[in-house]
């Protein structure tokens, strides 16, 4: 398995600083979500080439997937993101679904999402870039978000039927939404492209809450997963010290 740091680990610092930290801390990639906020892609590309690590995941512009009236805008956002990913060498695009539409049956919203994703799939397949749906918890952080459960997320991926439409499984969100983390994180492994991790409560670094990340990551590793585990969390201590602690207390034990 490979490990990625997420932008914001060092507040106020840009992607170049984060890439340098990725390299120094022995990780393999950076997740930078708002690619359109990068002032000069060429500068970032040069830094990636120099350091030998790069941006491994980004996001689409936030546009509702469950509202068919916004389909063209969503697809345009995917197209622009694919072009940025080609330039950066990024192979994963994260997409939220938007909030549930009031007064519209959930099934109708799901069908709209599936149709939009089916239209996006050929572009993703041709570019060999994976779009990842992300379920988010609606109890604490994202009230009203349409997609929250991993079983429904896997069902949607299956209905789209593309090898380039998958999931990012965020352990923090799924612990809040449904628990049963190891079973779900491994049962849906064929639909999962990468994982996010943070402890709960608090959404801080592993070791600060109730989740046993040695057991969780060991179970994921035993499935043969070779993709990225993204450390998407806050830090209660200096980030350098927290990552070093993560290496010693989690990675070394799995």
Write the SSE topology:
Layout: E1 2-6, H1 15-24, E2 29-31, H2 41-51, E3 54-59, H3 71-88, E4 92-95, H4 106-127, E5 130-133, H5 150-160, E6 165-170, H6 171-177, H7 181-187, E7 192-197, H8 213-222, E8 228-231, H9 239-249
Parallel strand pairs: 1-2, 1-8, 2-3, 3-4, 4-5, 5-6, 6-7, 7-8
Description:
The chain is of the alpha/beta class and 254 residues long. It has one domain: TIM Barrel (Alpha-Beta Barrel), CATH 3.20.20. Helix content is 42%, strand content 15%. It contains nine helices and eight strands. The protein has an eight-stranded parallel beta barrel, surrounded by six helices. Strand 7, helix 8 and strand 8 form a beta-alpha-beta unit. Helix 1 packs parallel to helix 2, helix 4 crosses helix 5 and helix 7 packs parallel to helix 8. The longest helix is centred in the middle third of the chain and has 22 residues. The chain is globular and about 45 Å long. The termini are close together.
